[in-house]
Amino acid sequence: MKRASSKLFLSCVCLVLLLGMVLLGVQSQAQTFTYVTNDGSSSVSVINTASNAVTATVAVGIFPQGVAITPDGTRAYVTNDGTNSVSVIDTGTNTVVATVPVGIEPVGVAITPGIGPPTNKNQCKNDGWKVFTIPEKFKNQGDCVSFVNAGK
């Protein structure tokens, strides 16, 4: 009886370990979304690109036109033609976190691609500057690069 109990215990342990290895081997995929302005309903539809289903509708200003997403994907900026403003959407919660007044009838919006190159070596310490617009020529030094903008 003791031998059967030990065998059952070892079988369970092996099963749990095998299941754990399988689950660790499954890579999680980040979900991607599309943000679509709805001019007639003063809203933005959030569409899950994997399922092509609308997952949220966010109320914004009147006659939304352009939309741009920040490089880190945390904010969507929507121009509102009818209210002369830009709605800032938190993409994690799909809620408007700010409304910025701008000029008359804004249509287009664009976001710069990165935070820029480091200006001195101290900015490379403590894992800094891992995401930035890469200059044409640089020397790789691990997490940072040997590039300093001299302002020329």
Q: Report strand %.
A: 25-35%
Largest sheet: 4 strands, antiparallel
Radius of gyration: 25 Å
* Mean of all residue-level pLDDT scores: 74
End-to-end separation in angstroms reads: 83 Å
Order of helices and strands: HEEEEEEEEE
Total discrete domains: 2
Number of β-strand runs: 9
User: What helical percentage do the residues reach?
Assistant: 10-25%
Assembly category: single chain
What would you call the structural class?
A: alpha+beta
Low-confidence stretches are 12-29, 138-152
**What name does CATH use for the topology of the largest domain?**
Thrombin, subunit H
Number of helical elements? 1
Widest beta sheet: strand line-up: 4-5-6-7
Shape: globular
* CATH C-level category of the largest domain: Mainly Beta
CATH architectural group of the largest domain: Beta Barrel
Give a structural overview:
This protein is α+β, with helices and mostly antiparallel strands and 152 residues long. It has 2 domains: 33-101, Beta Barrel (Thrombin, subunit H); 112-152, no CATH class. The chain is 16% helix and 32% strand. It contains 1 helix and 9 strands; from the N terminus they run H-E-E-E-E-E-E-E-E-E. It has one helix spanning 2-25, and strands at residues 33-38, 43-48, 53-59, 64-69, 75-80, 85-90, 95-101, 140-141, 144-145. The strands form 3 sheets. A 4-stranded antiparallel sheet has the order 4-5-6-7, with no helix packed on it. It has a 3-stranded antiparallel sheet with strand order 1-2-3, with no helix packed on it. The longest helix is centred in the first third of the chain and has 24 residues, at 2-25. The chain starts with a helix and ends in a 7-residue tail after the last strand.
